[in-house]
Amino acid sequence: MPTTLKDVALRAGVSIKTVSNVIHGTIHVADEKRERVEAAIKELNYQPNLSARHLRKGRVGVLGLVVPELTNPYFAEVSNTIIAAAACQSYTVLVDTTGGLRENERVVINGWRQQLLDGVILNALALEQEDLHPERVETPIVLLGERFLDVPYDHIIIDNVAAAYEATRHLLSLGRRRIAAIGLRSDLLRQTETSEMRLHGYLSALQEAGIAHDEALIPTTVTPYTRQSGYIAMRQLLENAVSLDAVFCFNDLMALGALRALHEAGLYAPQDVSIVGFDNIEEGCYALPSLTTIAPDKQQIGETAVRFLLGRIEGTRTEPPERVHVPFTLIKRESTMGRATF
Amino acid sequence: MPTTLKDVALRAGVSIKTVSNVIHGTIHVADEKRERVEAAIKELNYQPNLSARHLRKGRVGVLGLVVPELTNPYFAEVSNTIIAAAACQSYTVLVDTTGGLRENERVVINGWRQQLLDGVILNALALEQEDLHPERVETPIVLLGERFLDVPYDHIIIDNVAAAYEATRHLLSLGRRRIAAIGLRSDLLRQTETSEMRLHGYLSALQEAGIAHDEALIPTTVTPYTRQSGYIAMRQLLENAVSLDAVFCFNDLMALGALRALHEAGLYAPQDVSIVGFDNIEEGCYALPSLTTIAPDKQQIGETAVRFLLGRIEGTRTEPPERVHVPFTLIKRESTMGRATF
Questions:
Q1: A46 in contact with B, Cβ within 8 Å
Q2: Residue A101 carries which DSSP code?
Q3: Which of B71, B102, B110 sits opposite A76 (nearest CB)?
Q4: Partner of A234 for a Cys bridge, out of A45, A261, B227, B246, CB 3.0 to 4.6 A?
């Protein structure tokens, strides 16, 4: 008979919960207890079988998480919160990437690997309404991100218009008047809703302040949302000698690229140009200067996504699909406030 | 009869290869052709079935990739090269994380989800020889990283001792003599081989230069390899008033944290303290100053791992398991060379 969690707990003289915590690595266990559990696991040659509980219920214990890319730290950080929330419920998360390509997203939304996964969390960028065939889909899906579709799935978002408005208001409150916006695609027919909503919030704040918007302050790039595209867009602004005193970048990576371009031109943030990003990736806390940014509550995004998905999988969530807003905050750092005294 | 790739190609008037490229998103397809393919996919309501080819051969078309964490950009960047290399061969990669925990790694190395995956690429940090039961494992495994085990799997590594030696030699060649090393764990019994090998390369270079090593220059941290641990270790050095003119950090994240701590103390790189990192994550190219670093050839790591794994899965690779060294280079940037004239 295979060794069970209980056998390990008895041998180690700890609770089953403690053994589980050591195995899942989700909660810190004191070194002394941990070592006893590890010794017992070794002595008994215990093989954790995380999926036993699920198999009894006809589930595999695996969730799919599908994001555009892992090299954007925002998606890596959100993935982390999802992996941690799922681990607390003994679910493994397997991550796949789409490159933000419509074709790949279409495969995922229409019942991707249903036999291997209990459910899927998808952050879509490019899906169109006509791509959806919910009648083919047997496993629950939760959507993340700013793609708004008429589809019977729970959907977790933040209010991008309000967030971009608040970022721009912050720059206006500092007396900035020539505020550039970086994040639009040069192919204007292929804007993501993310870009459109952030542009909309930016324009609303300008309008409210009685500032006419100036096309010259809104450069476009071929593939936005990377460090390189922020760098290139900032270089364009500088080469075109566009007068500016602030930049709102539609994500942190572009803001970090723009910072680099400014610095190379002998301009500094915030003295010469104030910069605000979006995402609150960890990199922005350590950047020189540290980056003022919009911080979506990633913890809550991950926990809500997992709670909704598991609720659907386990049948405890029976409400009609909801669109839920997760809060965000503006975090003011050196790129707009200047260097604190350390 | 379901629509096939060929039907789409005929409708769009392009080759099957082009349709495949649009669907897999691995190779750029000119906009005009791409639009024709997308239109044909839509008209024919084509559902890509990536796994058909595999199912015919008793495979599922899915590889598992297991790394310690995705929020370390090094692992995200290596994952990206693996995902791209696998996509070229019509394999999907699902990514799981272990938190670097021995218990989780043990589950993976001993035949994890063999029924769902054709093979696994594992970057292990904590496995011990006694954890291994290769007789239970039915699917091929390829190992990445510096955990050296006597196990019948292909293993892809870089020469960490030589790389750390070269990083330290670079600092010595700039006339630096008080070179700190950041990356050891305070729990000396739980060093990873990565830390040990990088320390060894550092000490060899010092010894060769006739410099006695000074314990005060080797601070330890509780959980190394994060921005925060680099920041804390640098603060410790500064608070202890340790005289130093350079730092070799065992990864880029710690180097970026150390840069921040230096800057807060009014010290600058490279004027006051030169800094070298390890990994060549993209963040280091855009940092201010940009980061001198050891660059493992991530492209080659990903391509070799996938080539070896698919060779085992498809039976074309029959050689005994190999340990293969992938090259690295030292990339000199502003954190040691100073600011270039732009």
A1: no
A2: -
A3: B71
A4: A261
